[in-house]
Amino acid sequence: MSDGLGFGFGGVLRSALEAFGPLCVGIDPHDFLLQEWGLASSAAGVREFGLRTVEAAAGRAGIVKPQVAFFERFGSAGYAALEEVLAAARAAGIITIADAKRGDIDTSLAGYAEAWLTPGAPLEADAVTVNPFQGVGSLAAAMEYAADNGKGMFVLAATSNPEATEIQTAQVKRPDSTVSVSRAIIDDVSAFNAGRIDAGAAYAGAVGSIGVVLGATVDFAAQGVDVTAPKSPALPVLAPGFGHQGAQATRVRELFGALTPFTIVAESRSLLQAGPAGLAVAIDERAAELRAALV
Q1: Active-site residues: which are they?
Q2: Which residue numbers delimit the Orotidine 5'-phosphate decarboxylase domain (predicted)?
């Protein structure tokens, strides 16, 4: 997907947010949801689930986020189903974020980037989630590949699962300060984005190609994350944790502060439980609620 201006994923994201607001519909075909939708727990079932979700989201939300694990469990047939879902979303003009959370050394991660972010690839998505446990530096080649191809990445920084707190709040020594792991990841990603916008290419309101994942239920102050100051270029944020996980979508500005303009509000189960007959209405209502909250 192109923004038509050469500004890459950040420009594509800006256009989607302006047109539809920040709602991102998760495509998470849990077994209990497949059962509720009257679908089999199989590759055919997740394919149908994904295609119906894309159909309901088209024209109502600008972003969908398939959870790769729910497709991957069915092997090659599951991946074939995911390829169809991603292609359908692309044909509908919807941004796709493959929630794959890949992480590895630089050369291996570059291979993952080619799999998910190469234009025309079977698994082509607009962005992919990645895990920086081996250091944000290990993501460098993959981040460059994403930016060079007009694609995006979302780097896990402050996730809401309780098991992550000890690691994310651990302290990292920097030349002039000591910061939390979460803060260090955000700083490194922001520095990468700034490095991609040189003086000749800079423009007002630039948006980075690489973003971070910040859970909406995280206590950002306790994690050492500052949401009071805007980033330049603007930092895209993928924010799970709304809906079923407890965060209220109408509080997005209160929760994300200066990062709000490019914060993506991700919901899955709270919408998907409306079922195939009610999903379009549920998406419409949540999207309208979010747009009203951000006026």
Answers
A1: 101
A2: 22-283
